């Protein structure tokens, strides 16, 4: 009988495959700069909004106002 080396079954990986790193933010910044330049070249205008200004509109709760009138 010939002596054969013991063959072990392939071990299962203990960790998930490594994820690729996201592209650096420099690429994103360059993309935004290109989009802004294209916007301005097409005749777009950038508005400056004062600090503290919000686009949210504030109104009283309608359910309470309706209940008080009744």
From TrEMBL:
Residues 1-29, 50-70 are annotated as: Disordered. Pfam families: SutA-RBD (PF20661). Residues 1-19 have a biased composition (Low complexity). It comes from the Bacteria. Residues 25-57 form the Transcriptional regulator SutA RNAP-binding domain. InterPro entries: SutA_RBD (IPR049191). This is Transcriptional regulator SutA RNAP-binding domain-containing protein. It comes from Halopseudomonas formosensis.
């Amino acid at each position: 009988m010939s002596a054969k080396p013991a063959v072990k079954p392939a071990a299962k990986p203990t960790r998930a495959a490594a994820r690729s790193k996201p592209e650096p933010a420099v690429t994103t910044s360059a993309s935004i700069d290109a989009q802004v330049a294209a916007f301005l070249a097409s005749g777009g205008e950038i508005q400056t909004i004062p600090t503290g200004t919000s686009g949210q509109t504030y109104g009283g709760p309608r359910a309470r106002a309706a209940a008080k009138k009744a």
